[in-house]
Specification:
Layout: E1 13-16, H1 20-36, E2 44-49, H2 61-77, E3 83-103, E4 110-117, E5 125-128, E6 154-157, E7 163-168, E8 173-175, E9 184-194, E10 205-208, E11 214-216
Antiparallel strand pairs: 1-7, 2-3, 3-8, 3-9, 4-7, 4-9, 5-6, 5-8, 10-11
The protein binds fe (ii) ion.
């Protein structure tokens, strides 16, 4: 009997928020701000990127609530200590030909995107296999219709209005070129881990090894 055991997964969380009014309100607000505010330069090419304090606007309250609900579920799922904390948020407008180069989000725990308005050829979000070893001698595969997800080396998510995609902040990702004549509007964000006060001798688990033994955060 061949047993397969899987370790070190990369979890990606997806949720569709079906609230047309929120999408319309955010679209109007973002377009309004982009007309008045000079954008930032980050991984975006040919796009408008708002300041990173976008979450301070009351227009984002509903979305923030939804994101906190998701993050609280993720914290439970991943057995994380403390609570999620929204560190920053920014709006993006990718015009025709605009894209985002490969990048990660240093200093955060979970990052993600919320699609406000997109079209079929607006450009997919691409996530890349983070394991450096796998790129060293990549194996060849049979041409089978059902290629298992666990064997994928990159993942493509087409944008979908109202969809939230959350992934670990260390995961390399990019956004393909917008080939639509219409701009793609999205909101990106970073969450960190807000920890309770930790005493030097608290039995706080930093990680568990194969035997299930915990290691203290101070070890
Ligand atoms: Fe990003």
């Amino acid at each position: 009997m061949l047993n397969k055991e899987q370790y070190f997964p990369t979890n990606v969380y997806v949720k569709d928020i079906l609230d047309g009014q929120m999408l319309r309100d955010l679209k109007k607000y973002i377009l309004g701000r982009s007309g008045k505010e000079e954008g930032f330069k980050r991984s975006n090419v040919k796009g408008w990127h708002s300041q990173t304090n976008f979450h301070e606007s009351s227009q984002c309250d509903k979305l923030k609530q939804e994101l906190y609900t998701m993050l609280e579920d993720i914290f439970k799922e991943e057995q994380l200590l403390g609570e999620p904390s929204l560190r920053n948020m920014w709006a993006n407008i990718n015009y025709e030909g605009g894209h985002n180069r490969n990048h990660i989000h240093p200093g955060a725990l979970f990052s993600g995107v919320f699609y406000v308005e997109s079209f079929a050829d607006s450009g997919n979000l691409k996530l890349y296999d983070p394991r450096p070893g796998i790129h060293y001698t990549p194996p060849l595969y049979k041409m089978e219709k059902d290629f298992k997800k666990e064997l994928w080396r990159e993942v493509s998510y087409p944008p979908m209005d109202g969809r939230v995609i959350i992934f670990p902040s260390w995961l390399w990702h990019s956004v393909e070129i917008n080939e639509s004549h219409k701009p793609r509007i999205s909101i990106s964000f970073n969450f960190t881990q807000k920890l309770p006060p930790i005493q030097m001798d608290d039995p706080v688990l930093h990680y568990k090894d194969a035997t299930g033994r915990g290691r203290n955060i101070n070890d």
